Amino acid sequence: MSVHPYWNVHGFERDGAIYYQVSDLSGTVHLIVGEIDGVYSALPVAESSAGLRLPMQPKPMNSEFSLHLKVDSEGAVWRLDVDAPER
Question: What is the pTM of this model?
Answer without folding.
Answer: 0.72
